[in-house]
Structure formats: C-alpha cells, structure tokens
C-alpha cells in the first residue's frame, strides 16, 4: 500500500486539481491529478487508461494511479512525472521563446511530432494538441505531450462529439465529420503558430471563429518571423482537406527538422526525490539551521523539512493537513515502481490546467467549466448560432 502526502495545488481546472505529492516510503516527488465528480472521474479514467499504455521520452510519464478518501470525499488520482518548467503556452505568451531563436522552435516541434507519431502508431488520437498541453522538459530544447483526457481510439468507429479546444480544432472536427491523426496534425500547425507568436492561430471571435475555421476556405496566417522552411512546414500541416495533410512520418523528414539532433532531446533527468525537487524548483537560502543540528546530513534533512512545510495545500479543497501536507493512504493502488536503471522514475509534471475551451466560445455561454462531452455540445450550440446568423 502506497502512502503519500498531498502538497500545494499547482493547477486547477474544470476537472479538479493537480497537486505536488510526496511518496512517504521513497521520498519521491510526483504530480497527482485528482477528480471527484462523476463526469470528471470518467475523463480521468480515460486519461489513465491511455497514458498507462504509453512509453515515450516525448510524452509525460505515467507513474501510477489510485483512489483515495480525503475529508469524506472519494478522489480518483493519476500520478505523473514532474516537469517544473511549465507549459509551452506560458513560455510563448511571455515572449521568452522569441528570444531563443528558431532552432528551439524546431526542437520543440520535433518533440511534438515524435510524440504524435508514436501515439498514432498505437491507434490513439490526442484530440487536444495545444500549447497548454505541452510541458517543457528539463532539457532546455525538449518538450513533452500531456493531457490525454480527450484522447480517443482511432479504430473505435463510433460517432463522437467534437473534442478539444475550438481555436485549435481542424475544420472537419468543427463540422463533426471526422477526428483522427490528421486532425492532430492540423492542431500541431496551430500550436506552432502559437509557439512563434504567443497567441492562438485564430482570433477569438466566438461563434464567428468557429464558422471561419469550419465552413470557409481560410487557413491561419503564417508568422512572418518564421523562416521559409518553417512556413512550408506549416503549409503541410494546415491543409483544409485532411487527406492533403502530411503524416507525422512525413513531417519528421521535412527539411525544417533536419537540423535537430534527436540524441540531445528528452534525456535530461527530472528531480528524483524531495531534496532534488526543492534544490531545483524551490531554491532559497537555507542558512538557518534547527538548534541542535550536528552534521551536514542533519542540516540537509532539517532544510528539507522546512521547505516541505512551505508547500502547503492552497485554496479549494480544505483537506486536513499535517505541516501543510495532506496525508493520503490509498484504498486502491496501482503504482508503477522505478526499476534498476530507470532514471525517469520518481518525477512529476507541472501543469497549469485550464478548461478545454481555453476561452469563452460565445458570449451567451461564457466560461464553461464541464466535461469534454458537454463542451462538445457547447461547440455545436455555437455552430448553430453561427449558421442562424448567416
């Protein structure tokens, strides 16, 4: 039975929360994504099912899952690796990405395309590729694909409501015709534009934007700051007809990615334990020592305890805590332990979770916070509003 403590909230969305967490037996730190409401638990179960079947240096690592009982509430929990750099959207919107040059854009694009190629080869469609769902790796030139809550089996054959974030959706998804690997490629193109400009590929004009994406002949404007090769790469992603878009296999052969060295991506280690995590992610002066400390190892332990105490659970759920941490002893656990030589275990992921819509889709709906399925209905409402206006 795994015993762990819940730390501060590092992300909050319509589904629930993402918190720092500490394994009491191993001192390993990780991120725990939790949901308690039925429709959100269903989406989280889908993400657990998908993520637990994947293993790629370009996809956030699954560490385990469990059910916990906290403050009379049953929580479904997904344990993931920690990537302290934040999201690609945060980096792009802060203009920090503009300062590092196009080579970093190429490296990030290579990582995303590699992740998509891998999941597509396994019959999985992500359905929500965007900057918010891409996490910065510990290697400065690498990123990892995350958030598989909307993912589907490409072979399911069942009609589905649109899934994902409207401003990143492919035209055929908006129209409700198809959502498959080529739809992810369109979203990839929109994400590259977001990466370069710091803004979505389309202006957010509510239902009118959906009409433009789904029912016109328009494509997003290509960033002028991107090289000719980069713009050509985007044109291969942003064909309105799905069968005209390149596959991820083809995109990896595009000259835009030729200068990327795969051996330098996805290999740097994430924090493995409490001290590593605090030293790398929560740097602070630690000159003050607890009275009576007699050795450097004692001092390190005291410093760690002091730092742990500062990572208090904040806002939202008011769980009982012990020195700022909520102790959790799972009722049902399926936790993946790190094997010998597995340098990627005992790590976690730093998410800034947002609603799938990212922003309000139409004025009358506002900031909808609900499941992916309900958001699909919202998309259709907006489409109908647009058609009626037309």
Automatic annotation (TrEMBL):
| Protein kinase domain segment(s) | 4-257
Entry keyword set: ATP-binding, Kinase, Nucleotide-binding, Serine/threonine-protein kinase, Transferase
Kindly give the PROSITE patterns that the UniProt entry links to this protein: PROTEIN_KINASE_ATP (PS00107), PROTEIN_KINASE_DOM (PS50011), PROTEIN_KINASE_ST (PS00108)
> Where does this protein hold ATP?
33
Q: What's any GO biological process attached to this entry?
A: signal transduction
Superkingdom is Eukaryota
Q: Name one GO molecular function term.
A: ATP binding
Question: SUPFAM superfamilies from the xrefs?
Answer: Protein kinase-like (PK-like)
Fetch the Pfam families from UniProt.
Answer: Pkinase
* Coiled-coil features, chain-numbered ranges: none
**Cross-referenced InterPro entries:** Kinase-like_dom_sf (IPR011009), Plant_MAPKKK (IPR052751), Prot_kinase_dom (IPR000719), Protein_kinase_ATP_BS (IPR017441), Ser/Thr_kinase_AS (IPR008271)
What CDD domains does the database record attribute to this sequence? Answer: STKc_MAPKKK
Q: Which Gene3D superfamilies match?
A: Transferase(Phosphotransferase) domain 1
Q: Which family would the database say this protein is a member of?
A: Belongs to the protein kinase superfamily.
Query: What name appears for this protein in its UniProt entry?
Result: CCR4-NOT TRANSCRIPTIONAL COMPLEX SUBUNIT CAF120-RELATED
- Look up and give the organism this protein is from: Salix purpurea (Purple osier willow)
């Amino acid at each position: 039975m795994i015993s762990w403590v819940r730390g501060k909230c590092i992300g909050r969305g319509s589904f629930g929360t993402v918190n720092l967490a500490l394994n009491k037996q191993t001192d390993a730190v990780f991120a725990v994504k939790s949901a308690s409401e039925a429709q959100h638990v269903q989406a989280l179960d889908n993400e657990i099912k998908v993520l637990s079947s994947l293993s790629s240096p370009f996809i956030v690592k699954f560490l385990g899952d469990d059910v916990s009982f906290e403050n009379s509430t049953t929580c479904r929990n997904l344990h993931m690796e920690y990537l302290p750099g934040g999201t690609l959207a945060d980096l792009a919107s802060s203009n920090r990405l503009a300062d590092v040059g196009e080579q970093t854009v190429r490296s990030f694009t290579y990582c995303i395309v590699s992740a998509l190629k891998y999941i597509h080869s396994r019959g999985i469609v992500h359905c929500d590729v965007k900057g918010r769902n891409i996490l910065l790796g510990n290697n400065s030139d690498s990123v990892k694909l995350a958030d598989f809550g909307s993912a589907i089996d490409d072979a399911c054959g069942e009609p589905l409501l649109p899934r994902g974030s409207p401003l990143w959706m492919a035209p055929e998804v908006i129209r409700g015709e198809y959502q498959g690997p080529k739809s992810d490629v369109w979203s990839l193109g929109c994400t590259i534009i977001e990466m370069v400009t710091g803004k979505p590929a389309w202006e957010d004009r509510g239902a009118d934007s959906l009409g433009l994406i789904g029912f016109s002949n328009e494509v997003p404007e290509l960033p002028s700051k991107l090289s000719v090769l980069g713009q050509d790469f985007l044109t291969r992603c942003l064909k309105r007809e799905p069968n005209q878009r390149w596959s991820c296999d083809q995109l990896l052969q595009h000259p835009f990615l030729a200068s990327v060295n795969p051996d330098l991506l996805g290999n740097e280690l994430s924090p493995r334990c409490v001290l590593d995590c605090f030293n790398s992610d929560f740097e602070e002066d630690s000159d003050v020592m607890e009275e009576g400390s007699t050795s450097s190892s004692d001092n390190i332990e005291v410093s760690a305890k002091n730092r742990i105490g500062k990572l208090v659970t904040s806002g939202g759920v008011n769980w009982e805590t012990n020195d700022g941490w909520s102790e959790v002893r799972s009722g049902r656990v399926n936790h993946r332990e790190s094997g010998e030589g597995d340098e990627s275990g005992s790590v976690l992921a730093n998410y800034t979770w947002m609603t799938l819509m990212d922003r309000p889709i139409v004025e009358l709906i506002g900031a909808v916070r609900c499941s992916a399925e309900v958001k699909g209905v919202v998309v259709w409402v907006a489409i109908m509003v647009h058609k009626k206006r037309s």
